[in-house]
Amino acid sequence: MAQNRAFAAEDGNLSTSNLISTRAVDYLDIDLTFAKKPSGDIYKKKDAAAVKQAVKNLVQTNFYEKPFQPFFGTDVRGLLFELADEDTEDEVRSNIIRAIETYEPRALILDLAVKSTPDAHDLAVTLTFRILNTEEVVTFSTTLSRLR
Question: CA-CA distance, 5 to 74, in Å (whole number)?
Answer without folding.
Answer: 52
